[in-house]
C-alpha cells in the first residue's frame, strides 16, 4: 500500500526547501518562518480580496496574498513556494466560481479550510445584466420593412453575449456585493480560527463595511452624469456584469465573448462587434489593465473615432497607481467610465 503525504506535509517540505536554497525575502515570513509571530495566517488568492481582508482583520491575522498586483487571475500559475504558503495557512479566502483557474487543484486539496467569497453573494449568470430596453427602443425607430433584418441582427448579438454560461465570478465590480462577501468572510474566520478577538474583528469589519457603503454611494453619484441612452458598455471580456446590474448599464458586447481572458475570439465575431459598436454609437471600449488590450485596440482601429479606456478589472494596480487599493480601483473605474460616456 502506498501512503500519500497530506497536502500540509508537502507544503512544509516545499517551504523548507525554498528557504534552504535561496531565501525568499518577505515570503519567508508569509510562509511561516517567523516563529516569534503566533498570529494565525489567512492566505488570500487574489490581490483584490487580499486588500479587503487586510482591512478586515487588522492585527488579528497575518495576511498572505498569493497573486501580486497586475496578475491575470485566469492565467496565473502558482509557484511551488506559493503553493506552500497556501498549505501552511490556517484558512484560505478565495474568490470562487472558477475565477482562480490555475489554483483550482491547489484549493481543492485537503488540509486547509477554504472560503469562497462569492458563496455569500447574490450572484448573476453571464448575460443576466443584459437589458433589452436599448434594443426595444432601437426597434421602434425602424419601419416594418426592416423588422426581419433587425431581428436577425439581434439574434447574433444575443448569441454573442450568451456564449459563455454559468455563474459570473466578477462580483467585486459591485461594492454593494463586496459588503455581502465581507459578512461571509468575517463569519468564516470566527467559525474556523480559534483565539481570534471577535470584538476587534467585528469592529474592523464594521468600519470597512461603512467605507464600502460610502463607496457605493460615491460611484452612483459619479455615474449620474451618464445619460440613460449612453449607459452602454463594450468591454475586453465579460467582467462588468455586476457593475451593470448595480448601476443600470447594458453590456452590449465583449471583445472576448467569455468571462475568461484565456478564451479565444474569431474574426467574424470581431466584425459583428464592430458593426454593433457603430450602430449603437458606442464612444469607448473598456479594457482591463491585467490582460492584453491588443484586440480592443485593433477593434477600435477598425471602427474609427472610438477610444480604448483602461480600467482596473481583475487585479489591483501598482502601489503608485490610481488602483492600488480596492476602494481606489472601484472609484477610479467609475470616474473613467463616467468621463468616457458622459460627453
The CATH C-level class name of the largest domain:
Alpha Beta
| Oligomerization | single chain
SSE-based structural type: alpha/beta
Helix content: 40-55%
Strand content: 5-15%
Inertia-based shape = globular
Task: Note down, in words, how this protein is organized.
The chain is of the alpha/beta class and 343 residues long. The chain folds into 2 domains: 7-122 and 171-215, Nitrogenase molybdenum iron protein domain (Rossmann fold, 3-Layer(aba) Sandwich), CATH 3.40.50; 133-165 and 227-341, Nitrogenase molybdenum iron protein domain (Rossmann fold), CATH 3.40.50. 45% of the residues lie in helices and 11% in strands. The chain is built from 13 helices and 8 strands. The chain has helices spanning 7-20, 26-30, 47-57, 80-88, 104-107, 133-140, 147-161, 175-192, 198-222, 241-247, 267-280, 294-303, 326-341, and strands at residues 41-44, 62-65, 91-94, 114-116, 232-237, 250-256, 284-288, 307-311. A 4-stranded parallel beta sheet has the order 2-1-3-4, with helices on both faces. Helix 12 links the parallel strand 7 (284-288) and strand 8 (307-311). Mean pLDDT is 82; it is low at 1-33 and 130-163.
Amino acid at each position: 500500500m502506498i501512503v500519500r503525504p497530506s497536502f500540509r506535509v508537502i507544503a512544509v517540505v516545499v517551504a523548507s526547501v525554498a528557504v534552504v536554497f535561496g531565501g525568499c525575502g518577505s515570503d519567508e515570513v508569509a510562509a511561516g518562518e517567523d516563529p516569534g509571530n503566533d498570529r494565525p495566517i489567512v492566505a488570500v488568492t487574489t490581490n483584490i480580496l487580499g486588500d479587503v481582508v487586510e482591512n478586515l482583520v487588522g492585527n488579528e491575522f497575518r495576511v498572505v496574498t498569493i497573486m501580486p498586483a497586475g496578475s491575470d487571475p485566469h492565467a496565473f500559475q502558482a509557484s511551488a513556494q506559493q503553493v506552500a504558503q497556501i498549505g501552511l495557512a490556517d484558512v484560505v479566502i478565495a474568490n470562487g466560481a472558477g475565477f482562480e483557474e490555475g489554483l483550482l487543484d491547489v484549493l481543492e486539496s485537503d488540509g486547509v479550510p477554504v472560503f469562497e467569497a462569492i458563496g455569500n453573494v447574490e450572484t448573476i449568470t453571464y448575460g443576466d445584466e443584459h437589458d433589452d430596453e436599448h434594443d426595444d427602443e432601437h426597434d421602434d425607430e425602424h419601419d416594418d420593412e426592416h423588422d426581419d433584418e433587425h431581428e436577425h441582427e439581434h439574434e447574433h448579438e444575443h448569441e454573442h453575449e450568451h456564449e459563455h454560461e454559468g455563474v459570473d465570478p466578477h462580483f467585486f465590480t459591485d461594492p454593494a456585493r463586496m459588503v455581502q462577501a465581507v459578512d461571509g468572510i468575517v463569519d468564516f474566520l470566527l467559525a474556523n480560527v480559534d483565539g481570534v478577538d471577535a470584538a476587534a474583528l467585528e469592529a474592523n469589519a464594521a468600519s470597512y463595511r461603512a467605507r464600502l457603503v460610502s463607496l457605493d454611494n460615491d460611484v452612483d453619484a459619479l455615474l449620474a452624469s451618464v445619460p440613460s441612452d449612453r449607459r452602454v458598455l463594450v468591454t475586453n471580456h465579460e467582467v462588468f456584469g455586476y457593475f451593470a446590474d448595480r448601476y443600470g448599464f447594458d453590456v452590449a458586447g465583449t471583445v472576448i465573448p467569455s468571462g475568461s481572458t484565456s478564451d479565444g475570439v474569431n474574426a467574424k465575431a470581431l466584425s459583428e462587434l464592430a458593426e454593433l459598436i457603430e450602430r449603437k454609437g458606442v464612444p469607448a471600449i473598456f479594457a482591463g489593465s491585467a490582460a492584453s488590450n491588443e484586440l480592443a485596440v485593433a477593434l477600435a482601429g477598425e471602427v474609427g473615432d472610438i477610444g480604448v479606456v483602461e480600467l482596473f478589472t481583475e487585479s489591483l494596480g501598482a502601489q503608485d497607481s490610481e488602483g492600488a487599493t480596492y476602494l481606489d480601483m472601484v472609484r477610479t473605474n467609475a470616474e473613467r467610465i463616467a468621463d468616457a460616456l458622459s460627453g
